[in-house]
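seq as requested:
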Amino acid sequence: MRDSSNVQSDPLSDLLDFLQAHCQLSGQLIAGGTWARRFTNLDAIKFCAVTEGSCWYSIDGMSEPARVDAGDVLITNGTRTLTLASTAELVPEATSTSVVQDGNDQYRLGEGSDFTMLGGMIQIDAERQILLSNGLPPLIHVRGVSDEAKPIAWLLGQLVIEMKSARPGRLTAISGLAQLLFTQTIRAYLAHAPDSDEGWLKGFGDQRLVIVLSSIHSEPSRNWGLEELAKKAGMSRTSLAVRFRKMIGVPPLTYLTQWRMYLARRELRAGASISEAAASAGYTSDSAFSNAFKRVMSVAPAQYRKAAQDEISNSQVSCKDSTPDF
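struct tokens:
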């Protein structure tokens, strides 16, 4: 746990490091002619990166389909079904029939090859998946023409090259590039995330809130007060409280408590004692820590620690590892 005022905190990096989310490619989808497909795998965080051509997409609840072009990336948080189609008119008619896989391990829809897309999933353990899913809106669409998306174009190009190559280290390169693609897409989204979007991750792109988040993340065990955090952000107490709750979903000090408990949960899972986890979270009283932990996590720390250790001992760690849906 970072706990030093001498270290400049990066809240998004802290979050991604804590989540330990790994982006894994499912494969390459090639489509042509007339086609439409509903992609299942709800509860899986998916990304789709278009490398050639364009198509139309929709998720449950959208008023009308939108177009996605080469260089664009979509990320869905697993709460709504994604539909892709060659034309907007075909979206309502899409089915979830199996995608045909050819001899080159490529998935094909329709006839021809005027559309190509890389697909993948974010692999993350069950405990952290809920946190990430709640942070993301149902769908993120980062357009390749935006300035923030320039690194994405290079990453997509390299991924295509590596997938076609047989060079040593190919799989490691693909894994690393896919991970960077996910991170760069999130960064590009945060640059222009609408306040109206669902999910609290958008708050990590707010310049003033990032100052507050950086303070909390750099010294999570510190006894922060609302006035001190507001002063750092150059805001009044009321303005900070209103803005923080609007963007993140909870007041600043509630976020501080929640972040402490998430970090403490990680410590307990790693084998720390209740006292050690309490001290690292800034609590001098085990009972006060236990009450806070149970309030946030809905389970007592001793009970959680025992269950986590039993799970690890039995090598039954629960991870999201859904079967790729292309």
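Confidence is low (pLDDT under 50) at residues 1-7, 316-324.
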